[in-house]
Specification:
The protein contains 1 helix and 34 strands. β22 and β23 form a beta hairpin. The longest helix is centred in the first third of the chain and has 4 residues. The chain is elongated and about 75 Å long.
Length: about 375
């Protein structure tokens, strides 16, 4: 079933469309605005819904509510229709007399996202960037499942299934959008797909020192970067042209989680000169994004570095905390999708504009369809 991700309105609308007598001088009277935090495309629109609430918790509609927008990134009618005008983070206010409630809206670029739900029973879900078109695709086991990677076009997804009671062990599966799911690798995690769909790169779950690849049909399984002694190669990501592989490793001099690039034809490796996690090639192939921070606490920021290892810079805003729980580029290379402390965020690379996806507060390990 396709639907828009938003705060449930069932409780708010349970009393129907009728309007009750609600004098404003009664104690405990207030207004609730829903959705409280959502997203809209430039030129797209949706309706905010304000409801009255009294001291007993009764919720009911009113004909006397008025809506306004506080920022130029959106246009808001008095009846609550919100239209996206320009990329940005905006505030909507619903009022009646001296009562008011506020909601937030991110005006976002178009795109389709695959998400991992954070819960006891994980799932892989797909949604448009504005929260519309939500579809739950497949169960991903327990916490730690998901990490979906797109196949070219609309062919489907590769994802990791966290085995129930398996102590963190994961398996790789391929699923389409017609209900067909097959196992790809019984010991894999952190899959990433080559842009031409020829290879799926992953790390062996039982030994995080081994990076392997396999064709989507399960053939051609082979090791790519194997370090069974120090157990340090992980989080592979193939370059857009398929000739190089970025990865995280602990086996190089200096220790720590260093970022490296391997030439897939010759096997030659080079360090990028920085520690980090989740290296992700930009669509242009001339730079990589990555997470850098305190590994023990998982608190850090998002950076971009040149493919030659130069010019590293922080692109996420100072003071906003990001977790190493997923990172991906938009297809045109202008935005990054990252997990903050409170939500999935879109970060505009050139100026650090942050657009939280309020509807995705429970999601992580997300990827953007090419």
């Amino acid at each position: 079933m396709s639907r828009r991700l938003t705060r449930p309105l069932a409780a708010l609308l349970a009393l129907g469309a009728c309007t009750f007598f609600d004098p404003l001088d009664q104690a405990g009277l207030g207004i609730i605005l829903s959705p409280a935090d959502t997203a809209v495309l430039v030129g797209g629109r949706f309706s905010e819904h304000g409801m009255m609430v009294n001291s007993y918790g009764d919720v009911y509609p009113s004909d006397h509510l008025h809506y306004i927008g506080l920022d130029p990134d959106i246009a808001v009618t008095g009846g609550g229709t919100v239209t996206g005008v320009a990329y940005g983070r905006a505030t909507v206010v619903v009022t009646r007399g001296g009562l008011a409630d506020t909601g937030r809206v991110s005006v976002v670029p178009a795109g389709t996202l695959a998400l991992s739900k954070s819960s006891d029973t994980a799932s892989v879900d797909v949604v448009n960037a504005d929260g519309s078109g939500f579809t739950s695709v497949v169960s991903a086991g327990q916490f730690g499942g998901g990490a979906p990677a797109w196949l070219p076009g609309n062919a489907g997804l590769v994802y990791q299934y966290a085995i129930l009671g398996g102590g963190g062990d994961t398996q790789l599966f391929v699923t389409d959008f017609a209900g067909h799911t097959t196992m790809l690798e019984p010991f894999g995690r952190n899959p990433r797909v080559a842009r031409d769909g020829g290879w799926v790169y992953f790390q062996i779950a039982a030994n995080e020192g081994e990076i392997w690849r396999v064709h989507v049909d399960g053939s051609g399984l082979e090791a790519v970067a194997t370090d069974t002694l120090s157990g340090g190669d992980a989080q592979p990501d193939p370059s857009p042209d398929g000739t190089q592989l970025a990865f995280m490793s602990t086996r190089f001099p200096g220790g720590g989680f260093q970022l490296a690039v391997r030439d897939l034809a010759t096997g030659a490796e080079r360090l990028l000169g920085t520690e980090g996690q989740l290296p992700r090639w930009a669509p242009s192939g001339d730079s990589l994004a990555y997470w850098h921070g305190d590994v023990s606490s998982g608190m850090g920021a998002i950076f971009v570095i040149g493919a030659n290892g130069g010019g590293a810079r922080q692109v996420s805003p100072t003071g906003r905390i990001y977790r190493p729980l997923g990172l991906d580029w938009s297809p045109e290379g202008q935005w990054l999708l990252a997990r903050s402390d409170s939500s999935l965020d879109l970060i505009r690379v050139n100026d650090g504009l942050v657009l939280p996806l309020g509807y995705a507060a429970r999601y992580f390990l997300a990827s953007w369809r090419w």
